[in-house]
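Notes from the pairing session

We agreed to fold both candidates in a single pass and log them together. This is the raw record for the first candidate, unedited. Please don't reformat it; downstream parsing expects exactly this layout.

Candidate A
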Amino acid sequence: MAENAKRLKIKLGVVKRTTKELASYEKEIDTQSTKVESMKSDGKDAHDIKQQEEVLKEAKACLVDTNRRLEKACDELQDIVDEDGEALAESEDMVEAKKILNLAAETKFTLLDKSVKSRRKGWRKGWRKGWRKGSSDD
């Protein structure tokens, strides 16, 4: 049972860390987009603009990869919850894992047919609220 609790704690940490990483990439994309638009409107050198657009493109690629890793980590966390849910039902980590998985199911964090801004407005706030200690669902 101790090993199951350890697996749960590790996977829960992976989901939390990946969620923070995803939020960081979204923030970087917003910042870079603003910077590129500002450079274009100020008439900066085309080479400099192209370099910043490349940075933006890389951040978007990282966002896609991080989203994929988050989905995989949530699937693995769900497997652990399904396997060990009864044995660890009273565990604080199990309660938190179930809460995070419920938020993931409600928000369906996916890149399909959504822009970065529309996705950011929806699920990121829910995830952050969901895994803060002592937060309520109201």
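Candidate B (folded immediately after A)
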Amino acid sequence: LMTEKTFAALQAGLECRKWEETVMAWKRPSATNERFFVRLDSHKTCLTLWPLDNPKAITVLDLNRVTDLRTKTFDDEGEGVILDEQEQQRFLCLAYWEDIPDMVNVLLLSLVLETTAAVAEECRAGLRSLIKENINNSMRFISPSEQHFRAYAFIRAHADSNDRLATSTVIRLLGKDCADLVTPLLQLNGIETDMAVSQFTYELFSELERQAAPRADLDAEFKKLAGDGATYLDAAQFAKFLTEHQRDPRANEILDPIPTATSVLDIIRRFEIDPALARAGHLSKNAFFAYLMSTENDFHTPAHRAEYQDMTRPLSHYYCASSHNTYLTGDQLKSKSSYEIYRQVLLSGCRCIEIDIWDGANGEPEVTHGKTLCTKIDFRKVMEAVRDYSFITSDYPVLLSFENHTSPPQMRKVAAACIEILGPLLLKEFLDGLTYQTFVAEKRRLPSPRDLRGKVLIKNKRRKEDLDLPSESDDDTESAIVPAPGAGAAAGAGAGA
């Protein structure tokens, strides 16, 4: 986790050189000597950057949009960035999407921090820990209330170098059309053109957001529960809402207990910020809305936010998050093949990726959609992406689904590359020392996902002459868990290639 020392350094800000590019770019990015200032916001949710000679030109990057932090440059998509050895020690690159999750049009923000290599390494480690915990790189559930708070932190991060936040920025980020609704509220709080960032509290943001985007549906529900003109729910009204509206009457009363007077009052005390209302057992409209957005009102089972399934059954008993034609960034006729897409798919948690392998013109195997206009990429670099990114998000096994069209000479190069690049990650032998033939003849079950953690398996068709399988009539039991000839032995990875 990020240490207080690292957090303080990033929050104070660091000078850096900055440039941007996209992984779909074909030209070298234009790195400049212009100096920037970068800092992490106090809530550890955003990075703010601005040119040293123009502090008003602020750019804010929400860390929820960042999928990866890299400490080296990749030259596999564009021409890459050339750095000397000292710059490389202070370099970091953030891969992120712009507006919505996008594994194809990935943007890269590259920074060379103007500090010592030791401080730069601490900053990289601290940022990496924050990125790993974000919503896109983990199975963590994020509640509406957390999303709401991150929206507040994003606006707050637009404060300039003097910690002043322009009202025009607040209005723009809330929505330009709402200026007439939120300006009077800002003026009521004594705010005209700008404010100290400390004035922009979460309570003020919430009130501004309610003015900018009123929820007529929630207002109607509250009115129906509390009655015309009422400004709060009493404990009995709130208990009725929890019992009749939020709880399924078919639910198990032990696992999903019926709300009691004690549990209802406990919720009221935790969400009602007005002490007088809380003591009286009353819940205001704003506190009611806060409850609806919280994890207390989450439809997910709390225990299911962590791993809860039995992961010790045979591998064939599970559904697997899979990707088809993983290397393609578009259609199957003329789109670009990409190394980056493998990185992004694996970071998303996908556990089965497809690699279509063809003979390369230079004697080295290539990955592409054969007999089309799709571009070609080097098989070895795809294996490097698999090695580096398979187990960042999850340690459960990764299956490589080979569609192998190579000739025997290049097929041997495929096998050699898998063994050389993947090394100990590659499962080359059966876990219990069996051969493929005895595995099938004895109708053994496949290993479990837990047994195979941290391993890469290859699914590749075997040559018919290599198979010595029992006849189909002898294989009428447990057929779902015996490897079929077309699928190969998942555990016989090296030989299959």
